[in-house]
Amino acid sequence: MDHMRILFAGTPQAAVTPLKVLSQAGGDLQLVGVLTRPDAPSGRGRKLTPSPVKEAAQELGLPVVEASPDSEEFFEQIEALHPDLAAVVAYGKILKPPALNALPLGWYNLHFSLLPQYRGAAPVQRAIWAGEEITGATVFKIGPGLDDGPILAQSTVEIGPQETAGELLDRLSTDGAYLLAAALQGLAEGKISAHDQEEGVFETASKIHPADAHIRFDVPAFAVDRQIRACTPQPGAWCRVHRGDDPGRDDPGRDSLGGDDPAWNAANKPISGHGTGSGITMTLGRAHIDKSNNPSRPPRLSPGQVAVTKKHVWVGTLTNPLELDLVKPQGKKMMKAADWARGAHLSPRAYCD
């Protein structure tokens, strides 16, 4: 084989670096085309927008295939490109046997965990939520099962104590890009071969939905911290903030805690349960467990209880208070928690739930 002809399949931003690295890999690797999801509505105007991978592919001058892998059009376009195998990074569609069998050497996926641990859609988020200290990336051959194909290569990274899912995914995207290129080069040279995954019972990585990101404060501070970091930036860890002087009348149209309630804004509809009743919905962008001896910090806060000074905002948990660093009140941009609190007119009875 003079060159291994590669079809790249991916969609989101996390797949852009692997695409670019493969395009520059040289050696025995030749990128011949890119498979990605079709343009999708985005933003308040719901304008059709190309995927980050499609934009990158066009910049690189690569042919783009957007046909569904179970359509006749897909097989016609793939046949014209003559790929030997596919490199997959967060493509986002299930590949059925006819598509898997269409390429002579198969499809190889870059998965952001140390398989067989955390098979599924959200391995980075689930690793942080579980309190893992080490994770990594795996290149494996896709088969009919869920992320259970034979492994070609793996690499490991440490998870930072304050690292969010978005930050960790960015690192893994870069590390994994070079792992993927090296693994495919080794495969082309016949220097490495895939081995079966270990059998046993392992943690899975089901998708995290907005309802899962609703923060619980009646748990230890470390658990709240992990949930926030795991859900940042998507879907966003959230809670409802109550000013503490609610006379019992619901006013979902406007609340002095943050602005217009998005439940009444058709262009920014919240998930079920957001924007109704007292208080506002607020996303917590960054927080940390406060174990300091700050004299202004209350010695004890009940779970969900809020305490504020000019420079600090704390929320109680089952153990240590959590200090809020960045927050996003509904309808607003992300801001420093102390800046938000100065205009929120919180009473001493303010709380989050």
UniProtKB/TrEMBL annotation:
One GO MF term attached to the UniProt entry: methionyl-tRNA formyltransferase activity
Reaction catalyzed: L-methionyl-tRNA(fMet) + (6R)-10-formyltetrahydrofolate = N-formyl-L-methionyl-tRNA(fMet) + (6S)-5,6,7,8-tetrahydrofolate + H(+)
Record field: transmembrane: none
Binding site for (6S)-5,6,7,8-tetrahydrofolate: 113-116
EC number: 2.1.2.9
Pfam family, one: Formyl_trans_C
Domain Formyl transferase N-terminal: 4-182
Function: Attaches a formyl group to the free amino group of methionyl-tRNA(fMet). The formyl group appears to play a dual role in the initiator identity of N-formylmethionyl-tRNA by promoting its recognition by IF2 and preventing the misappropriation of this tRNA by the elongation apparatus.
Family statement drawn from the similarity comment of this UniProt entry: Belongs to the Fmt family.
Listed name of the protein: Methionyl-tRNA formyltransferase
Species per Swiss-Prot/TrEMBL record: Scardovia inopinata F0304
